[in-house]
Amino acid sequence: xxxxxxxxxxxxxxxxxxxxxxxxxxxxxxxxxxxxxxxxxxxxxxxxxxxxxxxxxxxxxxxxxxxxxxxxxxxxxxxxxxxxxxxxxxxxxxxxxxxxxxxxxxxxxxxxxxxxxxxxxxxxxxxxxxxxxxxxxxxxxxxxxxxxxxxxxxxxxxxxxxxxxxxxxxxxxxxxxxxxxxxxxxxxxxxxxxxxxxxxxxxxxxxxxxxxxxxxxxxxxxxxxxxxxxxxxxxxxxxxxxxxxxxxxxxxxxxxxxxxxxxxxxxxxxxxxxxxxxxxxxxxxxxxxxxxxxxxxxxxxxxxxxxxxxxxxxxxxxxxxxxxxxxxxxxxxxxxxxxxxxxxxxxxxxxxxxxxxxxxxxxxxxxxxxxxxxxxxxxxx
Length: 381
Description:
By secondary structure, the chain is mainly beta. It has a domain at 149-280: Methylamine Dehydrogenase, Chain H. It has helices at residues 4-37, 49-52; strands at 57-64, 73-79, 82-87, 91-96, 102-107, 115-121, 124-129, 132-137, 143-148, 158-159, 163-167, 173-177, 183-187, 195-200, 205-209, 213-217, 224-229, 234-241, 244-249, 253-261, 264-272, 282-283, 287-292, 296-301, 307-311, 314-321, 324-329, 333-338, 343-349, 355-357, 365-368, 373-379. The strands form 8 sheets. The protein has a 4-stranded antiparallel β-sheet. The protein has a 4-stranded antiparallel β-sheet with strand order 2-3-4-5. The protein is globular.
């Protein structure tokens, strides 16, 4: 997987990882005692429970990722039932998102290696590290399989029950058999544009391009099913919700495209946003939230596409519940927005929060600081 020098360094990291895992277990034992001290030691909390009361929120759990001195948390991701925390030294920790218990904590690559994508397919985490496709057990962190691809890729991989799909710098989508990794076919946009995002299932594969194309192809052969063209590049990744695709374009529009069947699509709506779009939307049960550079976060109705509200200082969605949107701002605060009345209800100080994971499925809020302290918040019922 790595060169000899890198492998030697990787082995040292793995040994350090075992020590960190022991430390993690110790932290879990101490966490109950720490909670008993919380009432008298407000510094124990990432966000003070007293401050959270004004937003009707409570701390559900809190846990510490065992980072080394000088190491910082780089990414916090929500994937199904797990929270994944990746450090700037490529140390990966997995926490149960309901209880906060540590599932595993280990290095997955030497420092300096780019970890592209940490997405789930059934029970595996799939990522690209260097030229290698790495598959890890999502719950244990153990390596299931690592294999080398000769492709230089442009976005995270996707897969279904039969194939892996890799987008290469050759501007082709490559389908490789999941069992033996033999390439079955390759397909490209007719304008030969660069592929920037892939979604796959057993019925069809969809990819977006830097020319604004959203193209559906057959999963097992180089056959185009349909194509939709925006006026400019697709910004960020495509987001699938049931039979709809949501995506942002650098033409400043947010789109909802409905897949009627494998051969027919329908543009349900498009809504122009107030600024430049550079990242994907957040799609919940009721709304779609889109960040527009310089103009903050905006919300539109998921069904109609009608504009609901915008928050100039808003930077991303944390969660949505009971008609309220919990928004993290560029002022290091939490803003609670009333979707129905399009107004800000309250603001909570998030001064120590540096990372977050967007949750589009329920009301839980996941946040962390640079030292690896991870917390889960939720509304008080």
